[in-house]
Amino acid sequence: MRTAGASGVLALGVPAASIAAAQNQPQPPAVKPGQEPKTESEAAQQYKHPPGVFINKPLTQVSKEADELLDDLEGRGCDFFYNEASPKTGLVRDRAPAAGGSLSRVASIAATGFGLSALCIAAKRNYLRPSDCEQRVEKTLAFLLEDCPHEHGFLYHFIDIESGQRMFGSELSSIDTALLLCGVLHCRQYFAGNARIEALATTFYRRVDWEWMLNGGQTLSMGWLPDQGFLKHRWDIYAELMTMYLMAIGSPTHPIPAETWNALLRPLVQYGGIDYISGVAPIFIHQYAHAWCDYRDQRDLHTNYFTNSIAATRAHQLWCLVLGQKFNWIDQNLWGITASDSREGYRVWGGPPSMGPLDGTVVPCATAGSLPFLPAECSHVLLHIRQTYGSKVWTRYGFVDAFQPKSNWYAEDILGIDQGISVLMAENLRTGFVWEYFMKNREIGHAMREVNFHPDPDANSQVL
Fold first, then answer.
1. Is 49 within a domain?
2. Predicted TM-score (pTM) of this structure
3. What is the DSSP code (8-state) at residue 290?
4. What is the mean pLDDT of each run of 10 residues along the chain (464 residues)?
5. In angstroms, rounded to a whole number, what is the distance separating the alpha carbons of residues 146 and 200?
6. For residue 381, what are the domain limits?
7. Which interval of the chain is the signal sequence (predicted)?
């Protein structure tokens, strides 16, 4: 179970303090000229690049066998979001045993956001009875709006699954409220024929006071605590924050200035000859914003963020292959590391650059979350994992959260957010369904125009 640190911050991204701490670490002693060790990036340039290519459209680069796997993955994932939610409130557990039957009362508002979109997918594909999905969505939205504690429309990161009350002293989280809101707005469009769902979703969105969360600054605060006020860290560097900013800029009631978009730092990094914009290392920062918002075929004044995530995924794959020189089970068939459970508890790890006490643990949602970016490569890994490790990794709800083959360790739990990114990105690869309905929200298109998104003439060209 994830709990807040001393600062009280537990956002999905890594607080800016982590970056500052890394910069302040003791530096290694100087070495004699000519004896410098090769950096990972230099080593990567000598490593044979994977062969695959990517064409932006159409998204059809998976085999029939892989498509059947993704269909099964989605169905089992939708079962997780239906079964591991409270029938009374609709709130989704932060985690649950892979075998099901959890009694945990810890709900995550981010997992609930993914769960709302999973209910749309389940209704569309008949994984669950559509009427049951619609009723669950309506009940969830009603509870969120009418009974769940909030401040200025923002909700606490972890809450009691039955009462909605704050747990663990967690923060009012701007990013987790945003992920919840993404699911809310997806439901508003998919169940557009249900007037109550539409009204509840619209009111929920209009209630979020983004101006308040700016707290007088140019960028959004990471959150707020009742006894301390606003957290000192801000969402000011590239991460999973893009769609949050678009919803804030497009808000019909409490919009923030469009200039905030360009106030975000966008560091350009290089790994193995691949250049891309990135903040901290875990690959999920290049996935979450794309779960709902469709950034294909367009760019702003800085970049095409979809092709940027392709580059980030390719760099991550290459980094994993280099890591395979230390952990020899990691190769073209088995790669992908992102924040996950481990033998020692929850870890925020990944790369490049290397982050965390890496031990060779493999995380299926790392490749599942990048399915639209490298379809053939990522689906191949998922197929290999299921075929090679069988029931050790493939459970009632799909893949376990993580596993370490050498030590024969397999996570016992499924994490809601990891399940969510896997389900949504699998569906986006196969049909673009989540993108299609989320982009029907006029506020998103308005915000994208405000920050100068425009067609990218190079979007359909081959990259990497």
1. no
2. 0.89
3. G
4. 32 37 34 43 45 38 90 99 99 97 97 99 99 99 98 99 98 99 99 99 99 99 98 98 99 99 97 93 96 97 96 96 96 97 96 95 99 94 98 98 98 98 98 98 99 90 39
5. 9
6. 63-438
7. 1-22
